[in-house]
Specification:
Layout: H1 4-14, E1 21-24, E2 37-38, E3 48-49, E4 53-56, E5 70-78, E6 92-96, E7 108-111, E8 115-118, E9 122-125, E10 135-136, E11 147-149, H2 157-165, E12 170-173, E13 178-184, E14 188-189, E15 199-200, H3 203-213, E16 217-224, H4 228-241, E17 244-248, H5 259-269, E18 276-281, E19 284-285, E20 289-295, E21 298-303, H6 307-325, E22 335-340, E23 344-345, E24 352-362, E25 365-370, H7 379-382, E26 387-391, E27 396-397, E28 402-407
Parallel strand pairs: 5-6, 13-16, 13-17, 14-15, 17-21, 19-24, 22-25
Antiparallel strand pairs: 1-12, 2-11, 3-10, 4-6, 4-7, 5-9, 8-9, 18-20, 20-21, 22-28, 23-27, 24-25, 24-26, 26-28
The protein binds adenosine monophosphate and magnesium ion (MG).
The site of magnesium ion (MG) has 6 residues, from loops.
């Protein structure tokens, strides 16, 4: 058996970022920038008011108080979206709304709450204003030419807003990986009534969902029967259509486990010698077997068939690889430490256990509770887990022990 970290390093070392493409801004959420984005113009583009009130000359308000206000002559009104038509001269003010440009001559805003109208053309200012008060200067957020976001930025909602602010309609980014998902096994049914020996295919819908959740584009490749020739043909078609392929089942040591054999066959046909297949026994539970291949440049993840093993294997090997392919610098999920509600017994067998737990925050730290069954086939029990607890080799952990947990929630 090989330690988890070694297998992860080997797999991640074999995948590379996809070639960057031009992406319309509306499609860029979640993608990673492949080039810097610079500001072509200042943001805000002009000095404007942060508040509703009066644009004034700060010196005119000297000494103004509630009981001894200063009277200014109101010479105009300015709403957001309109250019000033008159300047503010000594002793004057302009009624102004948030976002409107600062008129010439004015250097401060007195908020409307600190004023009182005085006849048709006057305003009483009840507080002294300092120069620049409530004024948003041009370039206060970005100066023209500033680096807005460096290459490597993963775009969230606010980033998309800033891209619109600087009128970036198209960005250079790493594309979403197109990821084919294939089930294998004669026992699998899509839906409908079960017949003897048959079960419903849960891995493919799960893996398609996990691929989508990872920000990639899922491609449903259906299900292959346990036959080496048809599996080889299906996989060949898949690697031609997809940036990566994920299979489940058929990588154990059973007599009908044909995934590795089919991949070996395809690797053998690649005369360039660049294709290769690695079959690992990873020192973990669940998800011990893993077949990882690169066929003509396309990575193939042969995950184990038991649904919980498939889930954990996807999290440990496929998801980090897809993130690397999509340009992310952060490949792995975050880890925290949590205190166990109950004991987590296990046997000493040279493996790292990745037990499914529900983690919650309490006032002084995280707490973890194991889901009701840790078997590799009980997906219903594992579905509620939001974390994997790393239970080290040995007799297990007592209640109250502190354990590292990998958080699975986005
Ligand atoms: P295998 O690795 O192909 O021997 O499969 C291991 C176990 O996982 C067997 O009990 C299979 O029936 C089950 N299994 C394999 N593929 C799937 C699937 N797509 N959905 C649900 N169970 C599966
Ligand atoms: Mg099988």
């Amino acid at each position: 058996m090989i330690p988890l970290g070694e297998v992860q390093a080997a797999v991640l070392g074999a995948v590379a970022p996809l070639a960057p493409v031009d992406v319309a801004r509306r499609d860029a959420l979640g993608l990673v920038l492949a080039e810097d984005v610079a500001a072509p113009e200042a943001v805000p583009p002009f000095a404007n008011t942060a508040m509703d009130g009066y644009a004034v000359r700060a010196t005119d308000t000297a000494g103004a108080t509630d009981s001894d206000p200063v009277r200014l002559r109101v010479v105009g009104e300015l709403a957001a979206g309109h250019a000033p038509t008159v300047a503010v001269r000594a002793g004057e003010a302009i009624r102004i709304m948030t976002g409107a440009p600062m008129p010439d001559g004015a250097d401060a805003i007195v908020i409307v709450e600190l004023t009182e109208r005085d006849g048709v053309d006057g305003v009483m200012v009840q507080q002294e204003a300092g120069p620049g008060q409530h004024v948003r200067r041009a370039g206060g957020d970005l100066e023209a030419g500033d680096l807005v976001f460096p290459a490597g930025t993963a775009l969230r909602g606010a980033h998309v807003g800033v891209l619109a602010t600087v009128d970036a309609q198209v960005v250079r980014a790493y594309p979403r990986a197109r990821v084919g998902v294939l089930s294998t096994g004669d026992e699998l049914l899509e839906s409908g009534p079960l017949s003897p020996g048959k079960i419903r295919d849960s891995n493919r819908p799960m893996l398609l969902a996990l691929v989508e959740r990872a920000g990639a584009e899922p491609v449903d490749l259906g299900s292959a029967v346990d036959d080496e020739a048809s599996m080889t043909a299906t996989l060949l078609d898949a690697i031609e259509r997809c940036d990566a392929v994920i299979t489940s089942g058929g990588v154990s040591v059973g007599d009908y486990d044909y995934v590795s054999a089919a991949l070996e066959h395809l690797a053998g046909e690649d005369a360039s010698g660049a294709s290769h297949v690695d079959w690992y026994q990873v020192a973990i539970k669940p998800a011990k077997p893993l077949c990882f291949a690169t066929i003509r440049g396309t990575p193939v993840f042969g995950l184990p068939g038991n649904p919980v093993s498939s889930l954990v294997s996807f999290e440990l090997f496929a998801r980090p690889s897809l993130r690397k392919m999509m340009g992310h610098a952060q490949w792995f999920r975050p880890s925290v430490t949590a205190r166990l509600d109950d004991a987590m017994p296990r046997k000493a067998d040279g493996k790292l256990y990745l037990d499914r737990v529900v983690v919650r925050w309490e006032h002084d730290g995280y707490r973890a509770r194991a889901v009701r069954s840790q078997e590799s086939n009980t997906l219903a029990a594992s579905a509620s887990a939001n974390a994997l607890a790393l239970v080290p080799d040995g007799p297990g952990l007592p209640a109250g022990a502190v354990v590292d947990v990998v958080l699975l929630d986005d």
